Amino acid sequence: MRHFLRLFLPAMLYLRSLSCLLVLLLSCFSVTIVAAQTSNNATTKWLTLNGDAPLVIARGGFSGLFPDSSYDAYMMAMGTSLANVIIWCDVQLTKDGVAICFPDLKLNNASDIDFYFKNKKSKYFVNGVPTLGWFSIDFNFKDLAPVTLRQGVYSRTERFDESQQRILTVQDVVNQVKPPGLWLNIQHDTFFSQHNLSMRSSIISLSRSVLINYISSPEVNFLRSIVARLNRRITKLVFRFLGQEDVEPSTNQTYGSLLKNLTFIKTFASGILVPKSYIWPVDNSLYLQPYTSLVLDAHKEGLQIFASEFVNDVPFAYNYSYDPISEYLSFVDNDDFSVDGVLSDFPVTPSATIDCFTHLDKNDKTQVKLLIITSEGASGDYPGCTDLAYTKAALDGADVLDCPVQMTKDGIPFCLGSINLIDKTTVSQSPFHNIASTVPELNITSGIVSFNLTWDEIKSLKPEITNPWLEFRLYRNPKARNEGNFVSLVDFLTYAKNVTTVSGVMISIENAAYLANQGFGVTAAVLEALRSAGYDNQTAKKVMIQSKDSSALKEFKKSRYELVYWIADNIRDIENSTVSEIKSFASSVILTKKSVFPSESKFLVGKTDVVQKLQSSNLSVYVQCFNNEFVSQAWDFFSDSYVEINNYIAGAGIDGVITDFPGTAARYRRNRCLGYKDQPPYHGLVDPGVLLQFMARQLLPPAEAPNPILTESDVVEPPLPPVAKIIPTAGNNSATANAAPTSPIGHSSVGAGILACCLSILLADLGIF
Ligand SMILES: *[C@@H]1O[C@H](CO)[C@@H](O)[C@H](O)[C@H]1NC(C)=O
Ligand SMILES: *[C@@H]1O[C@H](CO)[C@@H](O)[C@H](O)[C@H]1NC(C)=O
Ligand SMILES: *[C@@H]1O[C@H](CO)[C@@H](O)[C@H](O)[C@H]1NC(C)=O
Ligand SMILES: *[C@@H]1O[C@H](CO)[C@@H](O)[C@H](O)[C@H]1NC(C)=O
Ligand SMILES: *[C@@H]1O[C@H](CO)[C@@H](O)[C@H](O)[C@H]1NC(C)=O
Ligand SMILES: *[C@@H]1O[C@H](CO)[C@@H](O)[C@H](O)[C@H]1NC(C)=O
Ligand SMILES: *[C@@H]1O[C@H](CO)[C@@H](O)[C@H](O)[C@H]1NC(C)=O
Ligand SMILES: *[C@@H]1O[C@H](CO)[C@@H](O)[C@H](O)[C@H]1NC(C)=O
Ligand SMILES: *[C@@H]1O[C@H](CO)[C@@H](O)[C@H](O)[C@H]1NC(C)=O
Ligand SMILES: *[C@@H]1O[C@H](CO)[C@@H](O)[C@H](O)[C@H]1NC(C)=O
Ligand SMILES: *[C@@H]1O[C@H](CO)[C@@H](O)[C@H](O)[C@H]1NC(C)=O
Ligand SMILES: *[C@@H]1O[C@H](CO)[C@@H](O)[C@H](O)[C@H]1NC(C)=O
């Protein structure tokens, strides 16, 4: 406790009231509240057993971030969740019968016990399975004093490991954390009985001094043994289902077969806890199947039903597009049922879901001014820049559809996220694969540039979905991997003009100088397409022209289009003269995420003034690129794309987002909490740098070289060269399958083209995993 307060002293300077103490991470202005506002008047809409809003149960505290069952994890859960959050403790017993909170029977799962007691590894039978490890039954509680908790899930950050978080007893958790609700899970009663330790007496004696709201166990006999000894109005017993094929040790039946008789369960429990797949099963390829009748069945039996295994940082069904709120909503806000609670490692997300995002309608008014610009359409769901990606984006609520323009050999501008066809199409499996070449000017080591094929040839290829987080084995909608059709710029413009919900288009131009030297006047082609699609003398749809080359934007000076300058580098500041220079040719700017919130090893270290400086000169600021995949986000945002967006909008005041997942931004914009006078903590702002204060000095992320300041000379460019007069004749078919063999197909460097937009963000950080 003392340690904790010391650690947080600096953070506490930000905090203005006592209740803020809980809000470790979140800015203070947000706090007070919750209890009153949480019970939104949608109460009658909840299809839970008792009609109340579903509960959020924080498994081991905020175990998605901090070591499971640690003081910091529990406090963080309390500080970022609904006011009535239930704190979950996995109870284990020590040799001297002390009940501790620890996630696993084996203490080496999430602590450094193996370091302190090298020789005390044992082998025991656990439900008949020989198991090797460090077991709590071999240690008296006081022996565990030096042991500290660690992150047991290796994909999560290990930077909080050495921060002196001790193993806590159940009593410690109650005394120090003071949870509004307590849930004890007894995963192994049989094992402890076999070692002459009585979980039953421990729990009964605890129940005399501590208010226990829920006790769960996957063992029938344990629950039956205590049911008569507890006041069931105070303490609810919950039978926990494990895998359908797993065998329940006291009845020797599988959980799947126990599920068939809920009447039996009802004889000793008032609720059940099931893995989420019991309710929404997924097939082998991780697509959702229709939901089962389990929630309705349980409710019919008078049983509450809680769903487990909610985490933001493990792939879940593709149907949710990596949007964790979308997943929670399918459990608590569908037309047919709501579970009575969710067990989560990231309690901030279900808290926000329940208070801010349930019972929203697609047509609810947006609560905040925020322009949603796509990045290659809904490229999180479909191959970028295809008709499918654009249709989905429009359906999902995007305001502005983007088209990164490339040129074909026959001079047709079309939409594709890279000049190198290998990045975004199946060209390397096509007859054209052998025309690959090196293009030093574009940093392409082996590629096939779009202007080496005709439009007809390109249309003969298939698009390829982009998987920017392949390194973490996070795939995007594999079923649609090669679906959709390429669209020409004119077709794109015609489509966008016809969709009433779309307010504008953004055309991105890269490599204009290089293309001019190759005989392609891309800016002229864009102007011509806009004219022929009827955009030149209309005002209904906004037209944005985007480039990181000021020289390309200057070609559009005479038009009335909004010119958008992309500052592709991460910068820490911008000179006044640079702002003036940008202002001379653009009316808005695109920044990288790190130019707003710089980070080191994915931990925020501050906030720049760049947004404010640009806006004070009347330049609008958009930020790219927002992805739903948790690896794209700083840890401070809790692996929750909504928390991230909220911090950029409400915290940094940007005017728009550029995103692969427009549906997520559109849902954010409608969320009810934006309309609250006081922001609840699960919809609050993070203080950049606060997480660093939870770390031991030796585990602080290494300081990185500061980002540069953007100067005028970074922005000023010579004008585009004249378009070289080597216009290829349309239909000339020299680049065919018979073309002379060239170098083997490889991949272009990431630096080239628009591909870099979303990819470059984190490449520097990847080392930390
Ligand atoms: C919720 O209740 C408050 C006061 O009871 C009322 O002012 C508000 O309009 C209600 N909101 C909705 C969405 O029904
Ligand atoms: C701890 O247990 C969890 C859950 O079973 C598992 O995912 C994780 O890999 C384990 N970690 C260690 C270090 O054994
Ligand atoms: C448990 O107690 C019984 C009887 O007191 C004893 O026979 C047995 O050896 C003990 N088992 C263990 C694992 O200590
Ligand atoms: C449990 O069931 C299995 C087969 O279903 C049987 O082989 C085994 O003997 C049973 N064990 C007990 C303790 O009943
Ligand atoms: C289900 O359980 C109830 C209560 O224990 C029992 O009376 C009933 O026979 C069981 N039904 C089946 C089909 O086993
Ligand atoms: C999930 O997506 C797959 C593939 O698009 C689709 O077939 C399935 O019906 C979806 N599942 C649900 C429950 O919508
Ligand atoms: C190509 O890469 C080099 C070194 O990585 C870099 O300096 C240069 O700016 C890049 N050029 C382009 C066109 O991206
Ligand atoms: C415009 O949209 C309507 C329906 O919204 C559709 O029927 C029509 O074909 C579209 N026109 C074009 C040119 O796409
Ligand atoms: C521009 O608008 C005028 C009047 O609205 C119309 O007559 C003209 O045809 C339009 N020009 C083009 C190129 O569409
Ligand atoms: C930059 O501009 C701001 C506001 O326009 C002004 O307050 C500040 O002093 C200027 N900085 C410099 C170095 O001129
Ligand atoms: C920004 O625009 C507002 C109104 O459009 C104007 O009053 C103000 O002077 C402008 N500021 C700058 C720095 O251009
Ligand atoms: C276009 O393809 C030809 C082979 O057909 C190749 O020699 C040339 O280098 C390619 N141009 C570029 C820019 O890749």
TrEMBL record:
Keywords for this protein: Glycerol metabolism, Hydrolase, Signal
E.C. number: 3.1.4.46
Gene3D superfamilies: Phosphatidylinositol (PI) phosphodiesterase
Signal peptide per UniProt: 1-36
Superkingdom: Eukaryota
GP-PDE domain boundaries: 54-354, 370-669
EC class (word): hydrolase
InterPro entries referenced in this protein's UniProt entry, alphabetically: GP_PDE_dom, PLC-like_Pdiesterase_TIM-brl
SUPFAM superfamilies: PLC-like phosphodiesterases
Catalytic activity entry: a sn-glycero-3-phosphodiester + H2O = an alcohol + sn-glycerol 3-phosphate + H(+)
Presence of keyword Ribosomal protein: no
Statement: the UniProt record of this protein carries the keyword Lipid biosynthesis: no
A Pfam match: GDPD
Transmembrane segments: none
Protein name: glycerophosphodiester phosphodiesterase
Organism: Datura stramonium (Jimsonweed)
